[in-house]
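Q: I have 239 residues here and want to know how they pack in 3D. Can you give me a structure?
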Amino acid sequence: MDFQRILEYKKTKDPRILEELVLNNSNLVFYWANKFLKSGEPIEDLIQVGYIGLIKAIKNYDPKKGQFSTYASYCIMGEISHYLRDRGSIIKFPKTIRKLFFEMESYIQEIFQKENRVPSIEEISKKLNLKKESVEELMKLRENFFVQSVDDEDFYIDWTKIRSERLESFQLPIEDKIQLEIAINSLPEIQRKIIYYIFYYDLTQSEVAKKLQISQAQVSKLLKIALKKLKEILTKEIF
C-alpha cells in the first residue's frame, strides 16, 4: 500500500498523500524517538526531528533500497543521530568496533536484500569470526546506534541498554570486551585455548596442561607470551 501511494505522491506531489503517508508511518517515528530518549533531549524534539527523517524517506524512497519501513527507519535514525551530534549527545567508538558494526550491518542488509530475512546469530558469528555472545551484544548495540561508514566516528548510543549481567561480571563495557575477543582471536590456537581455559572457564594451569597434554611449565610460559601479545595489541588499538 505504501509503495503505491509513494508512487502517486511522486507523480502528483499532492500534500494530502504526503500527510497520509506520514500518519500511516508515524509509529516508526515514535519507536525511534523513544530509542534515543536517554540522550536527555526532550521527546517532543526527537519526534519532530524523526518526522523530518520520515518525510525525507518518503521523498527519496526507491524500491531498490528494500522495504520502505526498513529504509524509513534508517532515515529517521540518521536524522535523529545527526541532530544529537549537533547537540553534542554523541559517543566516540574506536575504529575496530565501528568496522565490526559496519561489516555486520552490510552483511545483514545483503542477506535481507537477497533472501528477505535477517541472518541468524550463528550466521553473523561465522561471518565476523566472533563468538555468539559477542554478536548478541553487537545486535543490542545495533538497536541504539546509527553510523554511516567506518570512518564516521561520532554516533549516539544509549548506554543504559547495552549492559548485560554477563558483561558486568567482567566489569568491561562492550567495546572493550569485543576488542579483547578480537585480540584473543589473533593469537595462535594453543595460546587462545589457554586464555579461554584460564580466564573464561576458570581452570588451573595444571588442569589446562592435562587438557592440552603439555606440561604445566609450558602452559605458564605460553600464558605469559599470550598476555604480552594481548597487551601489545590492545595498547596499540587504544593509542
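Q: Anything worth noting?
A: The first helix runs from residue 2 to 12. DSSP finds 13 helices and two strands in the chain.
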